[in-house]
Structures are given as structure tokens and as C-alpha cells.
Write a structure and sequence with these properties.
By secondary structure, this protein is mostly beta strands. The chain has five domains: 194 residues, no CATH class; 135 residues, Immunoglobulin-like (Sandwich); 104 residues, Immunoglobulin-like, CATH 2.60.40; 125 residues, Immunoglobulin-like, CATH 2.60.40; 119 residues, Immunoglobulins (Immunoglobulin-like, Sandwich), CATH 2.60.40. The relative contact order is 0.07.
């Protein structure tokens, strides 16, 4: 059994017998003093080892606090079964006192390694038991300062120390029967919490001076392969680096800029807790233009940002559009294939021909906007400093000059007789935006030049295309009278009255592109008709009838034009004195021309000219008692019919005229007398001109008995015919 004298040195409790702290919590907060009095933020340290001497530390990056709260709990259990001297009648142990010590140390401007104590004060817990009334249960202390107003600066340390002291008393037998309380001098236990203040972000050497290390770098910023990131030379002198976060953004076009579409919500975030790691490997989920932002975070949660840009595209390619690849110095009507001079420059254009559709549609080579955003709700700014943004490498913030995703054009040309194989050496195009190249090369009539363009996108994908330019500076052969033969009145499926023109024209350099024919009034120079025919080409070698040019095409020597005789119609007044001038223009494929003229004087020999024809094969199709149906074939004519006039006379001397539509080929004549003979004349009118009359004789049937039913079809036909006659008569009278 221990003796009380061994536990206590006189009236002082021995040092190995100390109070136990079971809970310690410290709070710093910023609470509005007016308005809604919202709590804007708070930081808490709740000690996991409250009874240890280790100082609990929390780094903070906020500087404004106006509220402090410290709570702790402690107890002391005194010794049991103590052997008491006779003069000690009793004793009691417990917590006698609780205190909060608040200390603030600051950085000395003269010597930053030796901080000085700026403020230091001790606050008593509200309940102080004292030595004569020790708390032998759990002691609780709750200290709050709602008007805390200390100033915090970068590098400050705020230390909150809770102090629990125990003690008690012994009852001594005094004179008489009165007992005297003799207090013990107890021991104390402390627990400290330190709030450390760091308001500065981590730093990179680029922010201090020029250095070779990049804040965030990649091995290739335009790549088809997985991406390798590196970063170096980051430091934080005060609180030290805590972790890295690599945020992934897929950039999208916004007007002329590429930008992070959701700046606060990255596509992916990679947390790297080991600050010794400075290399990371990543495969993007899809092709596109990426922004990677490295968050460098210190222990006070200060964050600095660095950014690098990467164009990742393992799959797109350069393709050809339907836009033409042509020599604009050549003749447009030949689809820019033939140039008709040998001394001028040659200009080739491929405007819109090549594209990387994926790059162009998504504007992947546009300028990238600066990353600077502010959250007004939490008043937090997130931006990448200029020194730490991507300004080096192949893909920076700047726009990459391009035309529909193409960043480079090269060209090459040579004589066509040297073959079509793709060249191995190239000449760069100086101005890619022009999508054209002008050059000069010696050539001769009939020569061809092969011209290649190679388009390259930013990924190194290539596409090659070729065009040919042909040359002919001379016109087709001169035409003699023997080369132009006019054959009158041939049978043709194209025209009712047709003649044929044979033109023997050739050009061994470029072939005949077309023959143009104009029919003109010899005296009036009035254009009756103009027409073109294409050059007479052959798909195969037809022997002596054809010749071959440098393109490999075969052309016939003879070209044929079917002429509609009606093109040469003259008015009755001019017919006797006017001729027709046949004017030919022969074009080769380089649009050089040869001309020839011939006069046609024997117009009267042309079928259809000065011929005002009536109907053919006028017949009686059906005969009735009061009507007949006539049928005929409308004769072709070079002149415009105006109407048809039927005049018929009965055997009893009655005469009648009927007017028929100019395009009709049948008619029902009604209202006739039965068993009567009629003589009919049929005349086609052409304005003031008339055809010769065509005569016809017919006789109506005898009268049908009243008891015989009349067929419905016949009745309908008669009524329809009466209606048509009425319409024709009305139309004629209106004319």
C-alpha cells in the first residue's frame, strides 16, 4: 500500500502524476457582422491525439478571421488505497484549473529565421474549481471569442494551447476537533494546436527568371501517340508542396477562339499525391485539341496553374473535295485544260480541293483563348499566369495558319511525255492561302505539262493530286470550198425538211472542239438561226478516218451538221430577192478559230421552203344520216398554221363553211341532210397564205326509222362535235 508521503513531495504532487486531456478542438471562422450574419468559412483542428505533446498543425490560406473557439476535456484520477498518517483524516484530488493560451508569432523583417512573439495572452476557462473544490469528474472547458480581431500575415503562426491543472487538498487534524484543509500544489498537462498561415502560391522558376525547365511540358504537342507529361522546378518555401492535379479539357470553338467549354468541370482529373513524381503518361479518350492544366497545390491549399496544349489525332486524313484542280490561265470553255499561248505564264489553282475535314470543322488550329475565370459565388479566381501558359513548341496559343486544315502545299511540274509517276522532290508554295501557283515552262504546240500538288496537314498526313495542261497556239486548218459540202433535202429523223452540211476540218495539235453555224440573211444580215455541234470524236482508232492528238483522243476529219430547212424561211416578199449566208466558225480545243462562209442561193430547191401544204390522206371515216366523220394527216410545214377552213356544197345547192382548229386531225360534220351528196374543199391557212384546196366527195346515209334507237355513243359524239364547232366558231370570230 503506497504512502501518501511517497506520492507527494510535501504538498506538491509529483510530476509523473498529471491530468489526462481526452478531447481538444480549435476553430477559426469568419462570420458576417451585419446582414444575414452568414458564416463564410471556418477551419477546425480536432486533435486525434489530445493527450500527446505533439503540436497539431493546420496550414491556412485565408487571412480574415473574427471568431475563435477552443474546447477541451480533461480528468484526473487520484491514487487509491493510500496509507494515511494518523494526522491526515482525508483527501481529495481532481482538476482544479483550465486555461487557454493564445500566442501569435510573426516573421522578423530583419531575420526571417527568427520569428518574434507578437501577442501572447492566457484566458481562464469560465469554471475554475480550485484546489479546495477539485473536479473529480471530467472537466469541460469551452472558450469563445466572438470579437477576435488579430491581424494575420504570411508566415504567421497562431498557437492555441489548452492547459489542464490538477490538485486537491488533505484534511489535517488540528487543535481541538476542527479539521484543517491543506491544499496540494498540482501538475499541469498541455496540448497545443498551431494554425500556420501561407498566402502565397507555389512558384516555378519561370516566374522568377528565365530558366530552361518548363512548368508543364509534353514530348510531342502534335501527336498520334500516347502523351508523356513532365514538370520540374516547382517549389513552395513555406508550407511545402502537397499534391498535383492534372485536369483534362477538350477544347471547343467559340467564335474565332478555342476555349475550355466548362472551365470548372474538366473532362477528367488525375490526382498525383506523390510530389516527387514529375512524369505522367496519358491516352486521350478521343481525337481533338486538348488543354491540360497542372494544379500545383501546397499544404495551405494555395494553387498555381500551368497549361500545355496538345493536338491528339491518330485517325484523320487529308481528302479531296469536288472543287476543281485547274489551270486558270487556260480557256474556261475547255474546262481549263487547254492554253492557247506559248509565251505567257501558266497559273494553276486548286482552291478548295484539299481538306482535313475533321480539323477544319472543329477549328482545331484556331487561336486558343487565355484561361482566366472567376467564380462570383465563392469569389475564387482560377487563371493560368502568362509565364506558365503554353508559348513554346509546335502547338501554342497562337493560330496555326491553315486552309481548311492544310498547313503546307508543295508543287512540282514536268513535261507530259516524262510520265505520270509521282515526283520525289517538291517545291514549297510560298503563300498557302492563295491555293495557286504561277510558273513558266518552255513548250510547243501539242505539248502537255503534268502539274502535281502535295497537301500536308499539321499531323504530317499527305495527299497528292495531279492535273494536265495542254497547249496549242495555232488555229485549225483553213477551210477550202472543197472542205465544206452542202447536201440538199436528205431524209433525217431529226427534222421534217432537212439538209446536211459536211465540214472537213482538223487540228492535229488539239483536235476540233466544236463547229458553230450561223444562218444569216445575205442582204439584211438578220440571224435566222445559230447552232453548235461538238467535235466528232471517236472512242477507238478508226483508221484513216481519224487522227490522234497528244491527249490520246481520236478525232474524225469530217463533221456533220443536220440543218432544218425551216431555219431558212423567208417572208413571201423577200423570197424572190434574198439569199442565205452560211457562216462557219471552227474551234479547236484551245479555242483558236478558223472561219468560212458560203452563200445558199437556190432556196426554192429546199423542201419546205415556200410550201404551204394542206392535209394528207383526207378520208371519210364514218358516214351517218345527218353527219360524217372526216380524218386526215396534218402535213409538216415550215410555216405557222392559223386555221383550217372546210367549205362544202350539197347536191341541192346549199353551201356552208366550217372553221377547224389548226392542229386538229379529225372532225365530225353534223347537221347534214340524209341521202344527200356533198362536195367538200379543205384549205389550210398560214396567216395570209393558203394551201391549195383538197377536194372530197361524200353522200350521207338514208334517214333512219324513228323506231330505231340511236346509240348513246353516236349521240354523245354528235353533241361533242356540235360543242367543238361552236368553240371553233367563237374563237375564229374573236380573232
Amino acid at each position: 500500500m503506497p504512502s501518501i508521503s511517497k506520492l507527494f513531495d510535501l504538498i506538491t504532487v509529483t510530476s509523473e502524476r498529471r491530468p489526462t486531456i481526452t478531447q481538444c478542438t480549435s476553430v477559426l471562422a469568419n462570420i458576417e457582422r451585419t446582414g444575414q450574419k452568414r458564416e463564410l468559412y471556418r477551419f477546425i483542428i480536432d486533435s486525434s491525439e489530445p493527450n500527446s505533446t505533439r503540436v497539431d498543425t493546420l496550414w491556412l490560406n485565408q487571412k480574415d478571421y473574427n471568431y475563435i473557439n477552443v474546447t477541451f476535456a480533461a480528468f484526473y484520477t487520484g491514487p487509491e488505497n493510500i496509507a494515511l498518517p494518523e494526522y491526515v483524516k482525508g483527501f481529495k484530488f481532481g482538476i482544479t484549473s483550465g486555461k487557454i493560451q493564445i500566442g501569435l508569432s510573426k516573421v522578423d523583417r530583419k531575420n526571417q529565421n527568427k520569428p518574434f512573439v507578437s501577442q501572447n495572452e492566457t484566458k481562464n476557462c469560465r469554471f475554475q474549481p480550485g484546489s479546495l473544490n477539485p473536479n473529480d469528474d471530467v472537466f469541460h472547458c469551452n472558450f469563445t471569442d466572438e470579437n477576435f480581431d488579430w491581424l494575420f500575415e504570411n508566415g504567421d503562426n497562431l498557437t492555441l494551447t489548452v492547459i489542464a491543472e490538477h490538485g486537491g487538498y488533505r484534511e489535517l487534524e488540528g487543535p481541538g476537533t476542527q479539521l484543517q484543509k491543506d491544499p496540494f500544489i498540482g501538475q499541469s498537462t498541455t496540448k497545443s494546436t498551431m494554425f500556420r498561415f501561407d498566402f502565397k502560391k507555389p512558384r516555378h522558376c519561370l516566374q522568377e527568371r528565365d530558366c530552361a525547365e518548363k512548368a508543364l511540358d509534353v514530348t510531342e504537342d502534335i501527336t498520334k501517340s500516347p502523351i508523356t507529361f513532365t514538370w520540374n522546378k516547382w517549389n513552395d518555401d513555406l508550407s511545402g508542396l502537397k499534391e498535383y492535379k492534372l485536369q483534362v479539357y477538350l477544347l471547343k470553338p467559340n467564335t474565332t477562339y478555342l476555349t475550355e467549354p466548362y472551365p470548372w468541370n474538366p473532362l477528367e482529373e488525375i490526382v498525383i499525391n506523390d510530389t516527387n513524381v514529375n512524369v505522367w503518361y496519358y491516352i486521350p479518350p478521343m481525337a481533338g485539341m486538348y488543354s491540360f492544366i497542372l494544379n500545383v497545390i501546397d499544404n495551405a491549399n494555395n494553387t498555381q496553374y500551368a497549361r500545355t496544349l496538345v493536338l491528339y489525332d491518330p485517325s484523320s486524313s487529308v481528302t479531296l473535295s469536288t472543287s476543281p484542280f485547274i489551270a486558270t490561265s487556260a480557256e474556261p470553255e475547255t474546262n481549263y485544260m487547254w492554253q492557247n499561248n506559248l509565251k505567257n505564264n501558266i497559273t494553276v489553282s486548286w482552291k478548295g480541293r484539299f481538306e482535313n475535314k475533321f480539323h477544319d470543322t472543329n477549328k482545331l488550329l484556331n487561336q486558343v483563348s487565355h484561361y482566366q475565370h472567376f467564380d462570383h459565388m465563392i469569389k475564387y479566381e482560377k487563371h493560368v499566369p502568362q509565364q506558365l501558359d503554353d508559348k513554346t513548341g509546335n502547338r501554342t496559343l497562337e493560330r496555326i495558319p491553315n486552309i481548311r486544315g492544310i498547313v503546307k502545299f508543295d508543287y512540282f511540274y514536268r513535261n507530259g511525255n516524262q510520265g505520270n509517276r509521282t515526283p520525289t522532290s517538291w517545291v514549297p508554295v510560298g503563300n498557302i492561302s492563295s491555293e495557286s501557283q504561277t510558273f513558266f515552262m518552255d513548250r510547243q504546240d501539242g505539248n502537255a505539262i503534268n502539274f502535281w500538288v502535295r497537301a500536308t496537314d499539321v499531323m504530317g498526313n499527305e495527299k497528292v493530286d495531279m492535273t494536265k495542261i495542254f497547249f496549242d497556239s495555232t488555229p485549225p486548218n483553213e477551210l477550202a470550198d472543197s472542205d465544206v459540202r452542202f447536201t440538199l433535202n436528205i431524209k433525217s429523223p431529226t427534222y421534217a425538211f432537212s439538209s446536211r452540211l459536211q465540214v472537213d476540218a482538223h487540228d492535229r495539235n488539239s483536235g476540233i472542239y466544236k463547229v458553230h453555224l450561223d444562218l444569216l440573211g445575205y442582204s439584211s444580215n438578220e440571224l435566222f438561226h445559230g447552232t453548235d455541234i461538238k467535235g466528232n470524236k471517236s472512242d477507238v482508232d478508226a483508221g484513216i478516218k481519224v487522227y490522234q492528238i497528244g491527249t490520246g483522243d481520236f478525232y474524225y476529219f469530217s463533221h456533220y451538221i443536220d440543218i432544218n430547212n425551216c431555219w431558212m424561211v423567208l417572208s413571201k416578199e423577200k423570197f424572190a430577192n434574198e439569199f442565205v449566208l452560211l457562216h462557219l466558225t471552227v474551234y479547236n480545243n484551245a479555242m483558236k478559230t478558223t472561219r468560212y462562209s458560203k452563200t445558199i442561193t437556190d432556196l426554192v430547191s429546199l423542201d419546205g421552203i415556200d410550201e404551204y401544204t394542206g392535209p394528207k390522206n383526207l378520208t371519210v371515216l364514218e358516214t351517218y344520216d345527218h353527219s360524217v366523220r372526216l380524218k386526215w394527216i396534218v402535213s409538216p410545214s415550215c410555216y405557222k398554221r392559223s386555221r383550217i377552213v372546210l367549205q362544202f356544197r350539197s347536191s341541192n345547192g346549199r353551201t356552208e363553211n366550217r372553221f377547224i382548229d389548226k392542229d386538229a386531225d379529225w372532225v365530225d360534220l353534223t347537221g347534214l341532210n340524209p341521202e344527200t351528196s356533198y362536195n367538200l374543199s379543205f384549205i389550210t391557212e398560214y396567216g395570209r397564205q393558203k394551201s391549195d384546196p383538197v377536194f372530197l366527195h361524200f353522200r350521207t346515209n338514208k334517214l333512219r326509222p324513228a323506231s330505231e334507237p340511236t346509240s348513246t355513243a353516236a349521240t354523245d359524239t354528235m353533241e361533242t362535235t356540235k360543242f367543238l364547232f361552236l368553240c371553233y366558231a367563237v374563237c375564229y370570230l374573236q380573232l
